[in-house]
Amino acid sequence: MKNAGTIIITVIGIAAGAGIPMGAEAATNGMAARARAMSQGTWPDGSRMDGWFSDRQPVDEARLGRPRRAEEFGAKPDEAGMQTEKLQSAIDRIAAEGGGVLVLGAGTWNSSSLFFKPLVHLKLEKGATLKGPADGGDTPRSMTRMTGMTIEYNVALVNADGCDGFTLYGEGTIDGNGRRTWEAFWPQRRKNSKFHDTTLPRPRNVYISNSKDVRVSGIAIKDSHFWTTHFYKCERLRIDNVRITAPGPKTPPASPSADAIDLDAVRDVHVWNSFFNVNDDAFALKGGKYYKCEEQPENGGNFNILVEDCVFGPVCHNAFTCGSEAFLCRNIIL
């Protein structure tokens, strides 16, 4: 396997646990090490770090196009019925009109899977919650990327494929509403040793694929049926000021495999000022599965990832892992 297992990672001090500070000496050494790395502008393998990684500007809403409120398209918050068709119609119409921002205001917007199109973005205002179905089977199935493979499986609540510049932002919340799935998962896992993670329909909260210049900023993302956010073959991905959570074993039912961020064959990723408290890995690198996976065109390595100024809550199994489906990881600074 050419370059198999090549891992170049620098760890520069981690704040572990909400409200649990690092020791002063460790924090000082970590900041000093980061300052040296950033001032030198190089990755662990000696290659030059692009200036893109020093840009922490907030989302420039003026560049995203005209904001369009969901109510303009007949969708309503706090309705018992699902708003999927009306929200999807809004996305389609905004795309047909040249792009813009779909804005969800305060209230709970019940929806199944939504599919964003190029030049259409999503803003969740303060008090807004986009809430997925309690039954994961109420989301459509399609060919998608999952556990290091391309398989037919339930798609995410928010999907964006081939959407360069896609921006998901605001002060609201994406709620996967996964409790019913968690309750069904654990009894089956205990009685059947061959029970697989994908046996049940378990949609992710966010799946963004084959896209460049992606931004996720400000929002809270919680209670996914499965992985919380999944980014596949994305380049120049920025994630900042997000809060990703899912309950652990002390508040049963625990959420199985609720990784906060799964990075799958990505390049150039910058994450900062965020909080993670999930019942699995905060970050998991993916890329391919099974024998000679590196030879399959749909698979790939993960390159140039910078994670800084984040807090990892007490539930996280790991802050950062080269996951069970990762075969090539290079230039990671945590």
Describe the structure.
- The protein has 334 residues and is mainly beta.
- It has three helices and 27 strands.
- The strands form four sheets. It has a ten-stranded parallel sheet with strand order 1-27-24-21-18-15-12-7-4-3. It has an eight-stranded parallel sheet with strand order 2-25-22-19-16-13-8-5, with no helix packed on it.
- The two termini are 27 Å apart.
Top keywords for this entry?
single chain; 334 residues; 3 helices; 13% helix
Summarize the structure.
The chain has about 325 residues and is mainly beta. Helices cover about 15% and strands about 35% of the residues. The model is unreliable at about 1-5 and about 15-25 (pLDDT under 50).
Determine the mean pLDDT.
Answer: 90
Order of helices and strands: EEHEHEEEEEEEEEEHEEEEEEEEEEEEEE
Shape estimate: globular
Number of distinct helices: 3
Instruction: List segments where confidence is low: pLDDT < 50 over at least 5 consecutive residues.
Output: 1-6, 14-23
| Order of adjacent strands in the largest pleated sheet | 1-27-24-21-18-15-12-7-4-3
Query: How much of the residues is beta strand, in percent?
Result: 35-45%
DSSP strand count: 27
Main sheet properties: 10 strands, parallel
Q: Helix amount, in percent?
A: 10-25%
The secondary-structure class comes to: mainly beta
Rounded to the nearest angstrom, the distance between the terminal CA atoms is 27 Å
